[in-house]
Amino acid sequence: KVIETCFRLAMETGLDLVSSEDEDVSSPSDMGFRLIDCLACNLSNKHFYPRALKLIEQCVTNDDPLARKNGMLAMGYISQGCEDPMKENLAQIVDVMVRGCNDSNDVVRTAAALSIGFMAENLLPDMINYHKEILPTVITFLDDSNEYVISKAAFAIDRFCDHLDKNEIKLYVDSALPKLMNLINIAPPKTKVRAVTALASIISAMGSKFTPFFKDTIEKLAILCNLQNAEEIDVRAAAIECAGHLANSVGKATIEPYISTLAGYAMAGLQLTGDEIPQSNLYALKESGFTFFSNLS
Questions:
Q1: Buried b (16+ CB within 10 A) or exposed e, 41-60
Q2: What is the largest CA-CA distance in the chain?
Q3: How many CB atoms lie within 10 A of CB 100?
Q4: Residue 13 in contact with residue 70, Cβ under 8 Å?
Q5: In this structure, are residues 62 and 71 in contact, taking their beta carbons and an 8 Å threshold?
Q6: Per residue of the chain (297 residues), what is the pLDDT tens digit?
């Protein structure tokens, strides 16, 4: 009964893009999904997984988009605790997630992209082997008109690219990179952070093979590294960290003309105090500065 109760609590949300897809919002639904995650991690897979999977299957095949959304989310939330049984039938699960990505409802697509990101983190290395089935569709989400869909797609791309090798990542650079660079120019701050983080994962995965894209990328990052608006401090932090990964990937000779400027931006962030920007943003900015200099060393 406990499992069914937690699922019912998780389903108590409207058909909107807030709640479990928004990190800053807490609701009964969020609590339900966290409890599902907790049960998945602490109960025996033998007892939890079959019952959870049955409830999820009822959701993802439902005509109601709200039910499909919640089923997609639940699949991602159980992936940490149910790693072994999910890997056993991962092909079927991936088919479900791809169907969610192609759903006509943007809320369902958002939930599918978010859960794909969770699964890429929790079902290693097996989930990464399905990149050809998943990434082409998720990359198209970067052109979506809905910011939630875009943000969760960037998150999923980031999680996948963290684990792809140079040959695999080459399959997606031509399609993903222009879209991410466009988002860096026009997206709201939270989505920009996601885009820059995904870009950093691509850069790290490609290593020196990213050199042909260096000039356009560093010029955009340099602008972000010097943002002064309080609302964009997290973008600035992500950009400084990304610049460090870029320097590490392309090598000293290529990055040399930009080192002084970038190091100045990173050092300026390290010298800020909590009186100037909120403490949470300050931590992110300082961490990014340390990461930048670590990548240069």
A1: eebebeebbeebbebbeebb
A2: 63
A3: 25
A4: yes
A5: yes
A6: 788 888 888 877 655 544 444 455 567 788 888 999 999 999 999 999 999 999 999 999 999 999 999 999 999 999 999 999 999 999 999 999 999 999 999 999 999 999 999 999 999 999 999 999 999 999 999 999 999 999 999 999 999 999 999 999 999 999 999 999 999 999 999 999 999 999 999 999 999 999 999 999 999 999 999 999 888 999 999 999 999 999 999 999 999 999 999 999 999 999 988 777 878 788 999 999 999 999 998
Decide: 21 and 111 in contact? Cβ < 8 Å: yes
Listed in sequence order, the residues at least 6 apart from 194 whose beta carbon sits closer than 8 Å to its beta carbon are 150, 151, 154, 155, 158
Best CA proximity match to 115, nearest among 102, 129, 98, 139 = 98
Considering only CA atoms, which of 20, 11, 31 is closest in space to residue 76? 20
Q: For residue 21, which of 152, 142, 141 has the smallest C-alpha distance?
A: 152
Do 82 and 118 touch, CB atoms closer than 8 A? no
Helices and strands (DSSP H and E) totals, the chain: 15, 0
Backbone angles phi, psi at 124, to 5 degrees: -75, 145
The residue type at 119: M
* Nearest CA-CA partner of 188 in 198, 178, 196: 196
* Assigned token pair, 47: 């007892």
For residue 124, the tally of other CB atoms under 10 A from its CB is: 15
